Amino acid sequence: MPQTSEPNGDPFEEPEVIHSYERAPMLPHGELLDLSGLAELVGFIVPVTMTYEAWVECIGWTGTPPEPEFPGTCEIARLWQVLWLARAEALRHDGTQFSFSMPRALRYDDGNADDNLVRRVDLVLLTHAGDQGELVATIMLPWQD
Predict the structure, then answer these.
(1) Which of 97, 111, 115, 119 has its CA 20 to 30 A from that of 47?
(2) Is 14 within the bounds of a domain?
(3) How many domains does the chain have?
(4) Residue 70 sits in which domain range?
(5) What DSSP state is assigned to residue 9?
(6) What is the pLDDT of residues 57-66, one digit of tens each?
(7) Per residue in 85-141, pLDDT tens?
(8) pTM score > 0.85 for this model?
(9) Which residues are registered as beta bridge partners of 100?
(10) Exposure string (b/e) for 90-113, b if CB count within 10 Å is 16 or more?
(11) How confident is the model at residue 69 (pLDDT cuts 50, 70, 90)?
(12) Dist CA 19 CA 64 (whole Å)
């Protein structure tokens, strides 16, 4: 019979949790941003958060902002776009994880005309159990968990 690495030798017993990180502390630390208020207006019926990294990549600007007339440049417009795309994707599929992408104007760091290009940013909407077992949703980059 093969040896197990479990101290009691029972491979079917739950392993000891060494570390877990709940969702609630991630909000005040800024690792997750609560989008629930606006997400409810879009039609979400569960609390929705977005990782800070996804926010920086899709919503927040760095450098000098572009002219206000440039379509989709304000943060609230980009946030609406992410939430609408996520909701549309969730309505199309069954399951707990959905991939979607959004067009994103490249950041205006130096005023160079080449910065006016648009590229797609891949995102994931994950529905899962929150800290108290309630259903919640998180929007993140594909490599995040």
Answers:
(1) 119
(2) no
(3) 1
(4) 32-140
(5) S
(6) 888 765 555 4
(7) 999 988 888 888 989 998 876 655 555 555 556 778 899 999 888 878 888 899 999
(8) no
(9) 123
(10) beeeeeeebebebebbebbeeeee
(11) very low
(12) 41
Tokens 């959905």, located at residue: 98
Residue 71 lies in a domain: yes
CA distances from 127 to 42, 44, 72, 76, 131 (A): 16, 11, 27, 23, 13
Residue recorded with tokens 């549309």:
88
List the structure tokens of 127: 């529905």
Contacts of 124 (CB under 8 A, 6+ apart): 97, 98, 99, 100, 139, 140, 141, 142, 144
Which two three-digit tokens encode residue 1? 């019979």
Q: Name the more confident of 36 and 70.
A: 36
